User: Fold these one by one.
Assistant:
Number 1:
Amino acid sequence: MTRATIRSVHPVLPSQDVATSVAFYVKKLGFTLAFQDTKENPHYAGVRRDEVELHLQWHDANEWAAVERPMLRFVVPAVSELFVEYSATGVFHKGTALRETGWGTREFAFYDPYMNGLTFYADA
């Protein structure tokens, strides 16, 4: 029997306003819009940069407290260059820094507008 191949994963990130999330990923992080369910007021969309595709899904404010926010880790061989690129876009919070970790990586992290955690790293 042939073993099935898993080719990629598309994480779904929660959002209270998908258009705002799309704008953040496109304008601040260099992604492009891959698709969205509607042109006006989308509730589901995908953004892509290089070989990474993220999906963004609307959640009602009444259920927002129960929606868990994921923490994503992106492998970026040129992590120092990406740090410089993103430092110019105003996405970092006060504690964002490019650092060496005890587990052998160089990485930096911050949150998107809806507190989904984004960490970008390379082996040190």
Number 2:
Amino acid sequence: MADAAPADEGPYTVDLGTHDLLLRERDGRFLRVGVRLTTPSRTTRAEIARRREALLRMLYYLGTHRAASALELPDAEARFAHDLRQRLQQAVKTGAISRIDLAPFEMIEKPLPDAYR
């Protein structure tokens, strides 16, 4: 009798996409950030996919409360990743988020939408 195939083991990556977050000053500067989460658990991957909208709301809340000057600091990306991971981990109950990758992570300028004028 042959051994059963090994279970599909992680790590699993979930891409939350790239988003432009209007910074606190509301002056046309945005943080463009792409977010990828890694988890060792298939169950956690499914929860992240299922709760994607809620997790993105947390991303937008964190980003829109960031000052542009804070994003100019040398450790801005590491701080943002740490803060985001803490918030998302509190929301994800089925397991750990073992890694968060932010790419791109850059400040951009573009015209404001009419709603912010």
